[in-house]
Description:
By secondary structure, the chain is of the alpha/beta class.
Amino acid sequence: MTDCAVLHVTSLLGGGVDRHVRDIARASTRRHIVWHASGTADILEHPREHRFLPLDRDAIARDPAALENWLRRENIGIVHAHSVDRASRARAAWAAHALGARYVATLHDVLFLRHDGFEPGAPAAADPAWLAETSSFLRDAAAVIAPSDYLATVARRNLPGVAIDVVPNGSPHRATPRHEVKARAQFEARRPRHVAVVLGAVGPHKGSAMLEEISRLLDGTGIAIVIVGYLDAQVVPGWRNDHLYIHGTYDDADVPALFAAYGAGVALFPNRVPESFSYALSDVWSAGLPAIVPSEGALGERVSRHGAGWLLRKDFNASDVDALLRRLFSAAGEHELAQVKSQLSLPDPGRVPPLDTMTRSLDALYSRFGIDPAAPLDPQSANVQQLLAKNIDGSAFRPELVRLADEFAQMREALEAERAKARQFEAEARGWIAKLEADVAALQAELTREVEANRELGQQIVQLTIHKEAFELLPGLLRKVLLKKILDARS
């Protein structure tokens, strides 16, 4: 196993993939470098140091050894590809070959099936020519990862023989914002009675046209849709129409407070292309909002599995969403809305996967397939022998080996954590035992004193009883004389 650095290769488009890579870099103890690739530009980034290095493509073409040596000095021992566009595939394959390393690939969406997979009206079926390109790259990967069972199933159906491992996208715990978060003044000036929120940047594949249709159907309902983010047709904050408001860009940490500030009662996902996971759903659930989602894709899969939402029919339209919103925000739907929302208060660790769980799974893969780039190449070394074994006969056992490596790494970390807890408990228990023993000794001494005092009191009572009986045998006149003497002596 190795603690080598990781080179992440991704496109320049950002979004959920960018968040994913940055979360890994923040949470993992390894060193991470990101290669942002496109058809026109290449930039290397040190995410923890906020340093960027634009690359001169012509210079790299003339002298690729310079970049190769730089990557070796950065201790890169494994490549992680996060996109299957041509530029990202080329950079990831080149870097792995130059370093004598392996690469793993994460499928963040369905774009491995066809280049135009996010275009409105694009067929759901794979484009054979494009799939031939991407499948060749994925078959050579040491491991292929999908964030959901839905996407893994799609990949297995279209990439026969390629093992797909599911590692759900983890989310960090969001700190409470240090500043006050408010709804925008334009919204406050005409605040509606009820709000459904949509989170993120909404383009055609996320249902931008559908949102426009839904909002036009909400006349007279007192319901508005607030996009915490922006629309492809409107980036600046403001009312798009009477029932659709654009908040604009936001900070991830502000999301729960923004939902509260706008009075959100439910979150809406009008996606036209199936999601592969959806960080937005994790953020919505973490903020305590139930969600309305399509039945297809990972959104439907997650709501079906964990509750806290409603499923729209497969071919839902704007009228379906309008009818559901009207019902949920009516007096008759108040109980239903509260009941579904209450499901978010029930413990469910799988509902929003934690970041550290995802990081442990990825670190297990990095350790299994990474190399030490600074070490000389020794064909008899364990790393090289393992690499040869993986290439020659490991494919038949790859799913089991990857799972075992992942489980072993997680079990080892869990065991160390339990051992630490046990040591802490033992130390605390010894302290409590010593205190209890001292307390018991003190109680025993006190009890001994009480018993002795009670014994003396008992003897005194016996003597007094004898004296009383003797006194009562005396003549009455004598008793009166003696009692008077006693009272006179006391006064």
